[in-house]
Design goal:
With about 550 residues, the protein is α+β, with helices and mostly antiparallel strands. The protein has 17 helices and 27 strands. An eight-stranded mixed β-sheet has the order 7-6-5-8-3-2-9-10. The longest helix is centred in the N-terminal third of the chain and has 18 residues, at about 165-180. Keywords: DNA damage, DNA repair. Belongs to the DNA mismatch repair MutL/HexB family.
Length: about 550
């Protein structure tokens, strides 16, 4: 499509503020242009933190000679039709036609471009509103160089971050594009030193390029309706959410909290409280169902159906986790286990044979050629939780002989007004009685049968707590109380626990996120004992195909 200048009434619709306020903005805008041009190879060079030079070289479609002179004019773009309706269905990363114009206002721009079918290239030099076009020779693609950024704007220059800080931000930005466009070649060079390279691959390879091979070996593939990418196994978590990355239609975004929560909810009890996974998720929505024009840097997009997209993300993450064994490796005995080894790709819990009981709490079992250590309390708790979940609504709720009055905090009272109908839907009838009291009339029959101290108080506390899923919180709390404790375990109960755990839908963690089993391969034992005999061969998970 040839470049044209947008009419004023269309330009007003997309005006969203200043485009270039730092070198990072120049890099982002030029990368978006290269991606929109269909580039498969992108090389970025910085000098002086980007204030001295920013250069982005690509092998994309290039700009025809007839349009090259318009490239540095404001609101001149080939990515948006000159009619108002096109603003509501943006399909490209760039669309405002301000990138090169804004860079020319802040520095000196040189653009060399040639479509593959064109003989000879065009060179465009722009500074401020002055534009010069000449002919030159160059390979197919486009190279944009911006020099002496803010040299003519001393007030802006004095407020720039130190070069090292800007390089850090540019490196992080390029890493995000690598994660969301892993099938391309990327290179970042800073003052002649290569800082980041990525060869074309998949999302796992992109994670390896950005975060290293150890992280890449601990991610699972996510492929579900409109959601693609990777998510880390439960053992790879962080206290912060800084490695949760999302893109919408190829555009890396600052994710709304709803999407981050959807990923964490997809883990359910597999993720400890306060922990966040690593994830790289590419979301696809219809062009008319998102608006990328709500932020000057286009890092924030508005989604027409954010709850629906969040639900798709939650289901996709849960499905990816359910398809893999999630037993955590036992701690190393002497030497750390081999890095990069993956477990068997299966979603079922193996048949375990009980070998013994340790400290009246842990079960030692054998399965798939490995030694398994089972936390009997966590395993029993998981089995009880799933039993309560299945039977919660199987019978009519049990009506109390006499309604019970319970004291509520103001926060609990507010939550009761929000949740009363939902609680009653699964058998818990709780009515505001005024003066900080609530009247409990019915409880689910399967919960009423539990011999748990302060049963009603615990049910109400969990149902009106700050957990986003009160139903799950109630069942998790009540599954913990009757579960086997230390000192209560014997061989017969151990066998029963293993049978119950094997029948669970999600046997790998208790409802609160603690692992139920640890796994130690014979190979790890042999290496720790220094054995090199005939039995030192891959077995169990070590023999699984990679």
């Amino acid at each position: 499509m040839t470049i044209h200048v947008l009419p004023p009434h269309v330009a007003r619709l997309i005006a969203a503020g200043e485009v270039v306020s730092r070198p990072l903005d120049v890099v982002r805008e030029l990368i978006e242009n290269a991606l929109d041009a269909g580039a498969t190879r992108l090389e970025v060079d910085l000098e002086g933190g980007g204030l001295g030079l920013v250069r982005v070289r690509d092998n994309g479609s290039g700009i025809p000679a007839a349009s090259a002179g318009l490239a540095a004019r404001r609101h001149a773009t080939s990515k948006l039709a000159p009619d108002a309706a096109s603003v509501d269905a943006v399909t490209t990363l760039g669309f405002r036609g301000e990138a090169l114009w804004a860079a020319a206002q802040a520095g000196e721009v040189q653009l060399v471009t040639r479509p593959a079918a064109q003989v000879g290239a065009c060179e465009v030099r722009a500074c401020g509103d002055e534009v010069e076009v000449s002919r030159t020779s160059a390979p197919a693609g486009t190279t944009v160089t911006v020099r002496r950024l803010f040299a003519a704007l001393p007030g802006r220059l004095r407020t720039q971050a130190p070069a090292a800080a800007e390089v850090r931000e540019v490196t992080a930005l390029l890493g995000r594009y690598v994660l969301h466009h892993p099938g391309l070649y990327w290179r970042l060079c800073v003052d002649g030193d290569v800082r980041l390279t990525h060869a074309p691959g998949d999302h796992r390879g992109a994670v390896a390029s950005v975060y290293g091979p150890l992280s890449a070996n601990r991610v699972l593939t996510v492929v579900a309706g409109g959601v693609r990418g990777v998510v880390s196994r439960p053992e790879l978590t962080r206290a912060r959410r800084d490695r949760m990355h999302f893109s919408v239609n190829g555009r890396p975004i600052l994710a709304p909290p709803e999407l981050e929560r959807a990923v964490i909810e997809g883990f359910a009890e597999l993720l400890p409280a306060g922990a966040a996974p690593l994830c790289v998720l590419d979301l696809t929505v219809a062009p008319e169902d998102h608006n990328p024009n709500v932020h000057p840097a286009k890092q924030v997009v508005a989604l027409a159906d954010l709850p629906g997209v969040a639900a798709r993300v939650r289901l996709a993450v849960a499905a990816a986790l359910a398809a893999h064994p999630l037993a955590r490796a036992a701690p190393a005995l002497l030497a750390p286990p081999e890095a990069g080894r993956e477990e068997a790709a299966q979603g079922t819990f193996p048949a375990l044979t009980l070998l013994g009981v340790y400290q009246e709490l842990y079960l030692l079992a054998q399965g798939e050629g490995d030694l398994w250590i089972v936390d009997a309390h966590a395993a029993h708790e998981r089995a009880l939780f799933e039993h309560l979940t299945r039977t919660l609504e199987a019978e009519p709720p049990a009506e109390l002989p006499e309604p019970e009055l319970l004291h509520l905090t103001p926060e609990q009272t507010a939550r009761l007004h929000e949740r009363a109908a939902a609680l009653q839907g699964w058998g818990l009838t709780l009515e505001d009685f005024g003066a900080g009291l609530a009247r409990l009339r019915t409880v689910p029959a399967t919960l009423a049968a539990l011999g748990v101290p302060r049963l009603h108080e615990q049910i109400v506390e969990a149902a009106l707590g700050d957990h986003p899923d009160p139903r799950r919180d109630v069942l998790a709390r009540l599954a913990c109380a009757p579960a086997l404790k230390a000192g209560m375990l014997d061989h017969a109960r151990g066998k029963a626990v293993l049978r119950a755990l094997g029948a669970c839908e999600h046997p790998w963690a208790c409802p609160h996120g603690r692992p139920t089993v640890l796994r130690l391969s014979e190979r790890d034992l042999a290496h720790s004992f220094g054995r090199r005999g005939v039995r030192d061969v891959p077995r169990g998970r070590d023999a699984a195909p990679r």
